Automatic annotation (TrEMBL):
CDD domains: RPI_A. Its EC number is 5.3.1.6. This is Ribose-5-phosphate isomerase A. Substrate binds at T34, G35, S36, T37, D89, G90, A91, D92, K102, G103, G104, G105, K129. Pathway: Carbohydrate degradation; pentose phosphate pathway; D-ribose 5-phosphate from D-ribulose 5-phosphate (non-oxidative stage): step 1/1. The gene is rpiA. It catalyses: aldehydo-D-ribose 5-phosphate = D-ribulose 5-phosphate. Belongs to the ribose 5-phosphate isomerase family. Pfam families: Rib_5-P_isom_A. InterPro entries: NagB/RpiA_transferase-like, Ribose5P_isomerase_typA_subgr, Ribose5P_isomerase_type_A.
């Protein structure tokens, strides 16, 4: 994509992604995130491959797998990888504790596996993603269809208002053949506690609260890059 055709927000996403890709070292196994910002990272990685960098990527979605293949990035299947050196992924929201909401694109389960396997978990965002408190973005939750009614009732019992996600007038189906519910819990006072509660619901495959799954957030603003790291307010 030519820089001249990018709007400011996309330029910010691209800048953050390019900065993250500088952290990738030769022979790394790289977790490939999903979404518009992660896609800029794929493109930057492909540029580095042309310059001689050797890596193998692990895709976090079928969409990312297709994009990576089209860019000539060698891939390893997620289910066979024991450890990932660095993952680069986007987020829908993050706070200064580096807690995230992810799953706007529906890829949260595989993204969570990629992040869990990764030594370094780098999140790339534009400044619209930074919040004081998580929750303006509804929490995406992937659920097994046969448990749908039960799971939706459990969200309600936790104070959440859930809507099943649709795409083109049909229920959205994930890469794992499940549904996504977008659950409005309002601003979330205690993301760790809510994450545990959601994990306890039978029929929930994964939820979009990523707690302790980011080591660094690279955020591009109009003025440049801001880097947030664990136990740091930003630099
Ligand atoms: O399921 C999608 C992912 O969690 C994305 O990483 C997230 O939605 C952010 O996407 P984008 O970079 O397009 O805003």
């Amino acid at each position: 994509m030519a820089a001249a055709t990018l709007n400011n927000r996309n330029l910010a996403k691209q800048l953050a992604a390019q900065e993250a890709v500088k952290l990738v070292k030769n022979n790394d196994i790289v977790g490939l995130g999903t979404g518009s910002t992660a896609r800029f990272a794929l493109m930057a990685l492909a540029e580095r491959l042309k310059e001689g960098l050797q890596i193998r990527g692990v895709p976090s979605s079928l969409a990312t797998e297709a994009q990576a293949k089209a860019l000539g990035i060698p891939l390893l299947p997620l289910g066979e990888v024991a450890q990932i050196d660095i993952s680069i992924d986007g987020a829908d929201e993050f706070n200064e504790e580096l807690q995230l909401i992810k799953g706007g694109g529906g890829a949260l389960f595989r993204e969570k596996i990629v992040a869990s396997l990764s030594k370094n978990r780098v999140v790339v965002v534009d400044s619209s993603k930074k919040v004081a408190q998580l929750g303006a973005f509804k929490v995406p939750v992937e659920l097994v269809p046969v448990a749908c009614r039960y799971v939706l009732d459990q969200f309600e019992a936790l104070g959440g208002q859930a809507q099943l996600r649709y795409k083109n007038d049909a229920l959205f189906i994930t890469d794992n053949q499940n549904y996504i519910a977008d659950v409005d819990f309002g601003l979330i006072a205690n993301p760790e506690e809510l994450a545990i509660q959601l994990n306890q619901i039978e029929g929930v495959l994964a939820h979009g609260l990523f707690i302790g799954l980011a080591t660094k957030v690279i955020m591009a603003t109009g003025e440049g890059l801001l880097v947030f790291e664990q136990s740091q307010k930003g630099s």
